[in-house]
Amino acid sequence: MNSYERPPATPEDVMHDVTVDIIRRAIPLGKKRARTITISKTARGKGVDLLTLDPRSPEGAQRLEAFLTPVQRHYTFSGLGAPEEPNAINWRNICLPFSRRMLLLFQVGVSFILKGTPFKNRWYRWMGAHIGRNVEIMQMVWLDHFRPELIFIGDNTLVGAFSQMTVHAYEGCGTFRYGLIEIGANCKIGAGTGIGPIKIEDGVRTLPGTTLSPYLVRIRAGSVVGYTPPPVKLPEPPPGETTVATTTSTQLSHERSPQ
């Protein structure tokens, strides 16, 4: 049975498991460095002390499940400390073990030179990303090696060269956030598109060089996203002739990310 024929994991299930895994790794490091690490559901929201959400105790596991119900599309960890603080914790250390980080760096490096073939899709699935049928991902596309399992790409979607999918953002002084990237079926992601945590519904097209995040959190089905076309000044018509200008307007439907 091929990997894409297995019962698919839902984005919510994956987000839940990733968050629990990060919390499990962060708690002992926080105790060792005498730091209070918190998690919040918004970028600037009040954080919850991870020690109260320790899944290894019955009370902590119960509070953790309550905190993760319902599962959010993104979370923020804080309290790791600035790099020059003697007891600071490197944010990378609480995300993944060293061995998997090194493997993912290798996998990402190789993926840059692979063409958009079924083999490349299998390569990304090996990394942990969820890739649908008949997906074409061109050369030099970067799928975030932070947690590639947070990336979902639907059937018959094309991702243009030099596009970037980033599921995390390090904000300095020991704060980072991460979230889900969901791209629906039959989408056309133009070359050089920048994508952060977002939900892109079916049939969306992005124009080359478009930056979606942090400006948008959802793009509705059938939308076309890109820059406003430049104004064109038509030449003056010769005497006795009439010039007709035809313009095409694109209906853009999306939800903006709160600033």
List keywords for this structure.
6-stranded mixed sheet; alpha/beta; about 260 residues; 2 domains; 5-stranded antiparallel sheet
Task: Tell me the layout of helices and strands.
Layout: H1 11-33, E1 38-40, E2 48-49, H2 58-67, E3 74-78, H3 98-113, H4 118-127, E4 130-131, E5 136-137, E6 142-143, E7 151-153, E8 158-159, E9 164-165, E10 168-170, E11 176-179, E12 181-183, E13 188-189, E14 194-195, E15 198-200, E16 205-206, E17 216-219, E18 224-225, E19 254-256
Helix pairs in contact: 3-4
**Any guess at the CATH architecture of the largest domain?**
3 Solenoid
Q: Structural class, please?
A: alpha/beta
The tally of structural domains comes to 2
Query: Biggest sheet, open or closed, and with what strands and sense?
Result: 6 strands, mixed
Arithmetic mean pLDDT: 88
Strand content: 15-25%
The name CATH uses for the topology of the largest domain is UDP N-Acetylglucosamine Acyltransferase, domain 1
Termini gap: 45 Å
Global Rg? 22 Å
Strands, count: 19
- The helix tally amounts to 4
